[in-house]
Amino acid sequence: MTRTPIGSVRSTSAMAKGRVTLSREDVVVAAGRLLDETGIDGLSMRSLARTLGTGPATLYWHVRDRDELLAAVLDDTLSAVEVPADGGWQECLLTLSERMRAALLPRPALVTVLWGASWRLGPTTLRLADETIALVAASGLPDDEVADAYLALIWFVLGFVHAESQAEANAGFAAHEPPGSYPHLSRFNPSTDPAAMHRRFTGGLRHLLAGIAEQAGQHRTEGLRP
Question: Which residue has the higher pLDDT, 198 or 220?
């Protein structure tokens, strides 16, 4: 989707008539840019209308309320995420999760939108959720365990994005404490330096996916027993 500057959403015909004509896409793109500038607390129907040079009533032609607006921004943010078409379920889930992290990290406030939406989400977000849970199901888990594994995966991705956006980069625990004070933290030295974050994300995902695969394997083995 081509991004349109907030100040460039007035059509020629509308300007000739002295009023602003907006499409839903105009409203959603402008809302995303305002979210980037002010954070989620600064994004309201009134502030967005002021940014667009119109009144709040105009926005309600396109979105029912702020919650629907935020869901639309989330949909727009995730629109570039493609589900891998080739490969095994584990590698597809790893790649898909990395793509979701990359899309959401510039707008981590949208994690709270996902957590609080109660499935009142846009078609793009719901499609990604549907295809993600299909990949989890492809592991061979029994049906009554698929939702549990899916939520564990999604919560890992969203929780990592939220934590990564909030964490202050540091070189590790050992650099901040006298040697020997906390021997295990000093030995393993967890850090949040940017260079390590991608490795930690993919490593954590691989552990999670390996656990799903092991559980699915146990289920298949039990199914073969006489």
Answer: 198
Please report, as a single letter, which amino acid is at residue 67: D
Task: Give every CB contact of residue 221 below 8 A, 6+ residues apart in sequence.
Answer: none
With vertex at residue 92, the alpha carbon angle to CA 87 and CA 98, rounded to the nearest 5 degrees, is 140
Q: Do the beta carbons of residue 52 and residue 44 sit within 8 Å?
A: no
pLDDT at 109: 94
Residue type, 214: E
Q: Residue 149: is it exposed, middle or buried by C-beta count within 10 angstroms (0-12/13-18/19+)?
A: buried
> 21-51: per-residue pLDDT in tens?
899 999 999 999 999 999 999 999 999 999 9
Which tokens is 37 given?
Answer: 């500038």
- The residue among 37, 32, 40 whose CA lies nearest residue 3 is 32
Q: What Å distances lie between residue 216 and 8, 55, 147, 207, CA to CA? A: 52, 55, 13, 14
Is a pLDDT exceeding 60 seen at residue 118? Answer: yes
What distance lies between CA 114 and its chain's CA centroid? 8
Nearest Cα to Cα of residue 105 among 80, 135, 77: 77
H/E segment holding residue 185: helix 183-188
Tokens, residue 221: 């083995």
pLDDT of residue 12: 34
Asked if 170 and 191 count as a contact pair (C-beta separation under 8 A), the reply is yes
* Whole-number CA gyration radius for the chain: 22
The distance between the two most distant Cα atoms of the chain, rounded to a whole number of Å, is 80
pTM above 0.90, yes or no: no
